[in-house]
Amino acid sequence: MLEQFKFWEFGIIDFIDVFLVAILLYYVYKLVKGTVAVNIFIGIIVIYLVWRLTDYLQMDMMHRIFDGFMKVGIIALIVVFQPEIRKFLLMIGSTNIRGKSIFGKMKFLKSEVSSDTDVESIIMACKNMSESKTGALIVLERNNNLDFLLDTGDTTNITLSQPIIESIFFKNSPLHDGAIIIEGNFVKATRIILPLTNENNIPKRYGLRHRAAVGITEKTDALAIAVSEETGHISYIKNGEFIIYKDVEGLIKKIQKDLV
Asked: What pTM was computed for the model?
């Protein structure tokens, strides 16, 4: 009789196991949050629960159907979640041990979290550049380390401010070509060349600057802000998608929330 209640035993190894699974699920959720992949992820969880339930209830026919799906499901997962898997592996492989450790990024363990990036200065600079139709491309680094891009431009360590951003993208400035990378409250690099997206559904009114913004946000969890040189429109790109915002204040709040 006592053997039936062994599942109540919970040791330190069980705690570590549950803790690690919780961390894994948290990061998986962060990768798919805000994308169409989140619906697929929920569907997979439902199928897994049904698979376990049919096994527990000894529903042989239903269990065999779902069991066959689960056996070949790993291949389907790799195909469907290819961008997200790439981001996840990049996140693990690009952990910056000099500064932000993987445990330092577990923001859900902190009681109070805030970003030290001066988002308001960035957007106000973009607003001024928008009025003067000055093209700009700004990348905000989050969990994924973007050091692999530094060789394409100039490494800097400039304290972030509105005049600094505007002076970098001034048309006669030698630094205005390419993108800048911002980490925390510092301009980490300038004149960076970003990977372009291969998507064909981007409107033709967007040029290479916007395709580069989509490309870097597809391959990493970075955020991108692009100012059009032709129209002056400010675009906000996250997870390879253009994010709609109401006004400048709304854009500031969206970015601040995404950086946390």
From this structure: 0.64
